[in-house]
Amino acid sequence: MTRRLCGATLLAQAVSVFFGALVVWQLARVTGGPRPADPAVLLGGGIGLALLCLVAAGALRSRAGVWLGWACQLLTLASALVLPAMAVVAVLFGGLWWLCLTQGQRIDADRARWAAEAGQAPGLEGTAAG
Q: What's the whole-model pTM score?
């Protein structure tokens, strides 16, 4: 369950970061700012962060995926230096990431305990164990 919850969070964050990248790219093209970054560099950085979110979602089967997820949260917060509205995105998704990690682990532990009490292996709920 932890993987599912955190994966959904990272996928939604990837979409939000991508749209934030489009906003900062267009603002840089129209207003000439923020300086000294080129609009294409800003767009590339935002797309890179969105792709990192997708890679982290795919890597959640291992411990490295969780660390990549935390890196995505920190980089999203750092992107607020370029586009201040990304601070809201960073706070929302950072909180959601933490909540999904903690509650997902609690749900996984409860499911494993219930399966052990029922005499089943974890992940075999609803199947005939025999």
A: 0.80
* Cβ-proximal residues to 10 (8 Å cutoff; 6+ apart), any chain: 53, 54, 56, 57, 60, 69, 72, 97
Other C-beta atoms lying within 10 Å of the C-beta of residue 42: 23
Q: Are 72 and 52 in contact (CB under 8 A)?
A: yes
Helices (H), the chain: 2-31, 39-58, 63-78, 86-118
Tokens of 38: 């080129």
Taking only the tens of pLDDT, the chain with its 130 residues reads 888 999 999 999 999 999 999 999 888 888 876 555 788 888 999 999 999 999 999 999 999 999 999 999 999 999 999 889 999 999 999 999 999 999 988 988 888 888 888 876 666 655 554 4
List all residues 6 or more positions away from 111 whose beta carbon is below 8 Å from its beta carbon. Answer: 1, 122, 125
